[in-house]
């Protein structure tokens, strides 16, 4: 075997091995081992909070989207402030938006996303509160209705005992139960309860 024949045979053998073929014919590109480019992030849909309300003293009804994600809607809050005004005097005050969150979370906990809240009372002016405290033992002189932090409610089609129990389990503020008048008081104050 001469030198030329030996070199030719060795080169042919090297070129036909799988490793050599892979190296020679299919070199690995630098991008082959790189991770695929990340897709642009799509903004997830922000949850919208909606309330359905019926004021039993004024007979007004309101369906309102008051919050999207973490953002409250200013115009919706104005509508709610007016809706929950002192119906005896017409006085309007700013309600605590967290009171609306309690209502929304309450209907979610009850498994009633389309629940209709029957409103007995919202904001209460000092004049109305003083008048009521003279005629009823159940009216606090420093009621959170005075600061727009309390709402008295029923939910259409749901026993007030179930509304009360669910509100108590949420432990989000004050819960008062008035069985003779058949309503539940919820507020954004300290966690406490009465009449239960």
Give the structure's gist in a few sentences:
The chain has helices spanning 3-16, 18-25, 74-83, 97-109, 126-135, 160-170; strands at 48-55, 61-68, 71-72, 116-121, 150-155, 174-178, 183-187, 192-194. With 196 residues, it is α+β, with helices and mostly antiparallel strands.
Number of domains as seen in the coordinates: 1
Count of DSSP strands: 8
Residue ranges: pLDDT <50 for 5 or more in a row?
3-34
How much of the residues is beta strand, in percent?
A: 15-25%
Supply Rg.
34 Å
How many helices? 6
How much helical structure, as a percent, in the residues?
25-40%
Order of helices and strands: HHEEEHHEHEHEEE
Q: What's the CATH class label?
A: Alpha Beta
Note the main attributes of this structure.
34% helix, 196 residues, disordered N terminus
Description:
- The chain has 196 residues and is of the alpha+beta class.
- The chain has one domain: Muramoyl-pentapeptide Carboxypeptidase, domain 2.
- It is 34% helix and 22% strand.
- It has 6 helices and 8 strands.
- Strands 3-2-1-4-5-7-6-8 form an 8-stranded mixed sheet.
- Strand 6 and strand 7 form a beta hairpin.
- It is globular.
- The N and C termini lie far apart (108 Å).
Q: Can you lay out the helices and strands and say which pair or pack?
A:
Elements: H1 3-16, H2 18-25, E1 48-55, E2 61-68, E3 71-72, H3 74-83, H4 97-109, E4 116-121, H5 126-135, E5 150-155, H6 160-170, E6 174-178, E7 183-187, E8 192-194
């Amino acid at each position: 075997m001469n030198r030329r024949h030996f070199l030719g045979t060795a080169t042919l053998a090297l070129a036909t091995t799988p490793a050599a073929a892979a190296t020679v014919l299919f070199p690995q590109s630098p991008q082959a081992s790189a991770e695929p480019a990340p897709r642009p992030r799509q903004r997830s849909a922000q949850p919208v909070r909606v309330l359905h309300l019926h004021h039993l003293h004024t007979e007004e009804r309101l369906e309102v989207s008051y919050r999207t994600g973490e953002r409250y809607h200013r115009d919706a809050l104005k509508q709610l402030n007016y809706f929950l005004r002192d119906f005896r005097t017409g006085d309007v005050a700013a309600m605590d938006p967290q009171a609306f969150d309690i209502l929304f979370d309450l209907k979610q906990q009850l498994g009633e996303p389309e629940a209709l809240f029957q409103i007995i009372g919202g904001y209460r002016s000092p004049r109305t509160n003083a008048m009521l405290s003279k005629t009823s033992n159940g009216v606090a002189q420093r009621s959170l209705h005075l600061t727009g932090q309390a709402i008295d409610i029923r939910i259409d089609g749901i026993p007030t005992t179930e509304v009360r129990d669910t509100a108590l389990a949420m432990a989000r503020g004050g819960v008062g139960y008035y069985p003779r008048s058949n309503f539940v008081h919820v507020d954004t104050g300290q966690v406490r309860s009465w009449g239960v």
